[in-house]
Specification:
alpha+beta; Rieske Iron-sulfur Protein; Naphthalene 1,2-dioxygenase Alpha Subunit, Chain A, domain 1; seven-stranded antiparallel beta sheet; three-stranded antiparallel beta sheet; 18 strands; about 20% strand
Length: about 450
């Protein structure tokens, strides 16, 4: 045994090298989330742990059994989920009012109740202490005012448990949960991930309109696209805030980005652009063009009639933390649910409208066999790897193409329900001003090119 321990210590210390702690003891971990202290920075107004006065997806309904409660952390609060007397999922603060023990470490000895593991304080779905096992049936703790556990209202829709996290009375759930959850014809399939970063960094990524060609150039989805995603342009998308609930990008022709900025005299976009200051082209190679003709042909045969009609304030980025895109055959929703300031639970909703039982089977098979991996893992994990190193506390210098990020921050800091503002809402930060001025210069230059016929 001593020989083995000696060998292990030698192996652990030899040859060492400089790589292991080259960037410190945290290695390649995501940096902790720190907000800027500068009052001239809208990021300082954003709640680090999320927006509490909203409904959030908590967990799958099937994850809550009858015998054991389930613990879950949302918005830096720990909750306990169990089945109430009516069989529906209920949620309480995961803290026994007696001594603060975790209720989730206890049991559901009787149907509809959860019992604390320490002294047996037993609570119903209304947070009432109905028994105190260690003191017996005559315990004065039962029904005592101080022995109430806080209740978090819940609602189960299409197999997903939603929970109200606010201090005030719940808003109508239809305001916060996508409309397809209330549509009998819609089938919603889910995927759940965890990202080691703040919820706001994850949400800002969903409005990043100019990284498709770069970050996702080798994703399975973008390998089918001749241009690897959205066309390159230095002019950012214009955005509008809709009903104080969402940020929507405007399409080209209505104030949106000029996606034909680099088009040639024939109106076609070049596959490669020459970057003179590095004397190189991007993309560096033209290998995608070997198969691009096939997918161009496929796209030409597709019928683009959408099965979904989204209300205008359910397009784009929607409070409290989701992005929604209509993909003709399905509705894509990515919802970043804050766990704490450094961890986000990423919930994906893949919604389709199958016409019959065979369509339901087909949608389930394609989702589980390929689409779930292709969209939610292969594609989105490229976003995660790119954005998780962002350090929020550092000064920013924003571009015209950051317009969607600016619009999102204004939505959160000026229109989010129940947000506590520590200072007056800023008219325009220095970073926002730089982006606006860059946008104006570029648009004026583009207008001049068009006027000269170039």
């Amino acid at each position: 045994m001593r020989i083995w321990k000696t060998l292990r210590s030698v192996r652990a210390g030899f040859p060492g090298g400089w790589e292991k702690y080259a960037t410190g003891i945290d290695g390649e971990n995501s940096p902790p989330f720190v907000q800027p202290e500068n009052p001239d920075d809208r990021r300082s107004l954003i709640p680090a742990h999320g927006l509490p006065e909203y409904w959030y997806p908590a967990l799958p309904d099937k994850a809550v059994g009858k015998a054991k409660p389930v613990a879950l952390k949302l918005l830096n609060k720990r909750l306990v989920f169990f089945r109430g007397k009516d069989g529906k999922v209920a949620a309480l603060d995961d803290s026994c009012p007696h001594r603060g023990a975790y209720l989730s470490w206890g049991n559901c000895f009787w149907h509809g109740y959860v019992s604390c593991p320490y002294h047996g304080a037993t609570f119903d779905e209304n947070g009432e202490c109905v028994e105190f096992i260690t003191e017996g049936p005559q315990s004065k703790m039962v029904g005592a005012k101080g022995m109430r556990a806080r209740v978090f209202p819940t609602r189960t829709l299409k197999g997903v448990v939603f929970v109200w996290m606010g201090e005030n009375a719940p808003a109508p759930i239809e305001e916060d949960v996508p409309p397809e959850f209330f549509d009998r014809e819609s089938m919603v399939q889910t995927a759940w991930r965890y990202w080691d970063l703040n919820w706001m960094i994850a949400l800002e990524n969903t409005g990043d309109a100019h990284n498709m060609f770069y970050v996702h150039r080798n994703s399975f989805r973008m390998l089918r696209n001749r241009l690897g995603g959205r066309p390159r342009t230095p002019i950012g998308y214009r955005v509008e805030i809709v009903n104080n609930k969402s940020v929507k990008r405007l399409r080209e022709g209505s104030g949106g980005a000029n996606e034909a900025f680099y088009a040639g005299p024939d109106g076609k976009l070049p596959y490669q652009l020459y970057h003179p200051r590095v004397n190189g082209k991007w993309p560096k190679h033209r290998v995608r063009l070997l198969w691009a003709w096939f997918f161009d042909w496929m796209d030409g045969t597709k019928k683009r009639r959408s099965r979904f009609k989204n209300p205008s304030d359910w397009e784009g980025q929607r409070l409290p933390g989701m992005v929604r895109n209509n993909h003709h055959t399905h509705m894509y929703t990515r919802w970043g649910v804050p766990v704490d300031k450094d961890l986000t639970r990423v919930v994906y909703f893949f919604t389709s409208r199958p016409r019959n039982v065979f369509g339901r089977l087909y949608d389930r098979l394609t989702f589980n066999i390929g689409l779930n991996w292709m969209i939610h893992f292969n594609f989105s994990d490229q976003d995660y790897d790119a954005m998780r190193s962002c350090r929020y506390e550092l000064p920013e210098y924003l571009s015209s193409t950051d317009n969607p990020v600016i619009g999102l921050r204004k939505l959160v800091t000026e229109h989010a329900r129940g947000i506590r503002r520590t200072v007056d809402v800023l008219e325009e930060t220095s970073a926002e001003r730089a982006a606006r001025e860059a946008d104006e210069v570029l648009r004026a230059a583009q207008t001049g090119h068009r006027a000269n016929g170039s």
